[in-house]
Structure formats: C-alpha cells, structure tokens
Amino acid sequence: MTHTFGADSYPCRIRFSTPLKKVTCQALHLSTVFLVLFFWNAASASQNDPHISNPDISKITCPLVHSLSSQVHQVQDWMTELQNRRISIDRLLEIKLDHQNHTRGFSSSTRTVDQLIQRAMNEAVAHGKRLRPLIAWELAITLGIDPNQLTPLYRAIEFAHASSLIFDDLPAQDNASTRRGQPTLHIKYSESTAQLAAVALLTQSIREIQNLEPSFHALETVKLTAYWTEVIGGSGISLGQAIDLASRQGKSFTETEYLELIDLKTGLAFEAPLVGVAILAKRTDLTEPLKELSRILGRLYQIKDDILDATGDQTYLGKPAGQDQTNETLSAIAVYTDVNGATQALEKLYGEGIELIKRNQEALGKFRIYIDYFYSRTR
Questions:
Q1: What is the rounded end-to-end Cα distance, in angstroms, of the chain?
Q2: Could you point out which of 40, 78, 103, 275 has its C-alpha 20 to 30 Å from the C-alpha of 267?
Q3: What is Dmax (Cα atoms) for the chain?
Q4: Residue 80 counted as domain residue
Q5: CA-CA distances (angstroms) from residue 285 to 32, 282, 289, 290, 316?
Q6: Quick check: 119 pLDDT over 80?
C-alpha cells in the first residue's frame, strides 16, 4: 500500500494492490491537515518563546511527514507569491478620471458630484480577493506574456466585476447591506449614486481594453473588445442575473438550469480574464480548455458560496449570511436538497477539475492550486 499526496490526490488517496484499488480517504486527509497545523504552530511558537525549539523535521524518519513538509513549503511559497501579486494588482486599481476637459468652467457643486462618483467607484473596487486578475496573471506566465503588460486588463476585469456587485447589492436585486466587510454603496451614499458608479465602472472597463493596444496588436484588442461586450452584455452575465432574479418568482429550477445560471454569471466572470489573455497571446487553440476550466471554477466558487451562505458567519464572510434564504434566491442548498447534497456536488466538481488539469497539464497545470482553493475556501 502506498500513500500519495501530489497532483493526483483527491484530496488524498490510498492506492491498494488489492481489488479495492483506489479509495478516497477523508480521515487520512484530516490527519495530514493536523500535521500541517502542528508544525506550523510549533514553528510560530518558537519565534515567540526562545525556550521552545523548532521541530526538526529532518530527524523524523516517516516518509509521509517528509512529503508533507515539502508540500507545506510549496504552499507557503505559493501563498507568498500570490499575496505579492495581489498587492501589485491593488496598486494598479485606483481610478483617477480625467474630467478636466469637460468640467472646465463648471461650478464647484458640479465638480463635487463628479468627485463623489469617482470616490464611490474607488470604494466599490477596494478590498477584493482579486481572483480574476490573478488567474489572468497565471495564464500570462504560462503563455510567455509579461504580466506587467496586462495592467489595463486587470483593471478592466476588476471594474466590470465591481460594477456587477453594485447592481447585485441594490434593493431591487439582493438588497444587501454589506459587501467585503463594508457598507454597500447604496447604503453609504444613495441608490442613484450606486447606480451611476456601476455604469461608470462598466464603461471604464471597456475603455481599459483599448489601453492594451500599445503592448498588443490592434487586431487583438478589437477582438477582445468584441468578446468583452458579449460576456458582460445581454447574452452573458446580464442574462445570468436576469435568470437569477426570475428564480425568485416561485419557478422551480432543475439542476441543469441552476448550473446554466452559474455558467452565465460566475463562470463567465472567470472565463473573461482567461480567454482574454488567450486572445491577446493569439492562442485561440486554448479557448475550449479555458472555457471548461472557467465553467468548473465558476461552479466550484458558486456552490461553495451557497454553502458558506447557509453555514457561515457574517463577521467572517464580510457580507450578510443567509441572504439566499431571505431573498428566496436559487441556491445549491435548494437544488441539492440540503448542505450535504450541495457538498457532494462540490466534491464531484472537484474531481472533474482534477481530471481536466491532467488532460491539459502543460497549459493548465498551474491552475490545480486554484481548484484546491475554490474547493476548500472558508470565506
């Protein structure tokens, strides 16, 4: 019997030479998590108390612990790199609209309103996880593109995403009071200010695509613009939100219809940055694998989101828990009967994601850790 904890694990497997063949072992997975926490906490304690010595993993003869130690270091390195990228992206997102030309000579009250909208736009963009620009960054490295050339794309991604969240939070839709741990824009300002900020962010997103042209060929930026408007338009994310709102009118939805809704809303929001990079890199041969990855990422993210909404805490989540039940929103909990059913659907999707990575290792190999994160995240 051999233990495996690498890219083939789900989340870890015991491989037998007996007819049992492959058995998924959740208990062993929990044991490995315990060991990670033990060594992590012991190392942290030794930094604070000179009388506590660091555990010397090299003196432990268990091969399992050596394998685990190596993976802990790999995850730590990846988390550090990811955080550095996230900080870099955050610094690129400040909005400073050039209104000097068309506001010259206007009254101070008009300029004050102009500044209010700009402030609301910046607040809507702040405090995000930056998952979408991060996956664009990852693919750029894989395809040999300098990630620094994609600054306008990162901005376009986050502006469009923030715009959709503002609309989602409005009283006519989710009627949310907090977002990312902060009051939603319509609560802090007004509904009209929130709506105008959302429209401004959406148009600014399209404008940012044009700013890619100095680094990329004009033909690719035109193709990307056409694709971008299709994704965020009436046949894309907007359609997904319309279906979501319609689901609150008492219509029962099948699993297929629920997953289609996720694909249109969450899936397309992950597809846009990935296919966008492929368009700029002239790698349309990757379009289908990237769309499949986006579909899985979107479904993993949304089903996990529905589970967290039903089981999580508002203080930790940064947004109200239980919104789906309050708003009678279509969710994984309703479609799959309960939290256990939704969790089983999540596990099945995770397996599909691992299989997709295996089939497209060269192009998608680096996204394995994103699938792991989407599956196991707690907020």
A1: 36
A2: 78
A3: 83
A4: no
A5: 39, 9, 9, 10, 41
A6: yes
Predicted confidence (pLDDT) per residue in 218-244, tens digit: 999 999 999 999 998 888 999 998 888
Q: For residues 166 and 145, what is the distance between their CA atoms, to the nearest angstrom? A: 32
Evaluate whether 258 touches 332 at the Cβ level (below 8 Å).
Answer: yes
In sequence order, the 6+-apart residues with CB closer than 8 A to the CB of 283 are 143
State the residue range of the domain holding 214.
92-376
pTM (two decimals): 0.78
Cross-sheet strand order for the sheet of 13-15:
2-4, 13-15, 22-24
Give the total residue count for the chain: 379
Contact (Cβ atoms closer than 8 angstroms) between residue 42 and residue 57: no
Distances (CA, A) of 90 to 47, 137, 139: 30, 13, 19
- What are the helix and strand counts (H, E) for the chain? 19, 5
Residue type, 275: V
Report the C-alpha gap between 271 and 274 in whole angstroms: 5
| Residue pLDDT, tens place only, 189-204 | 999 999 999 999 999 9
Kind of pairing, strands 178-179 and 182-183? antiparallel
Residues 220 and 115 in one domain: yes
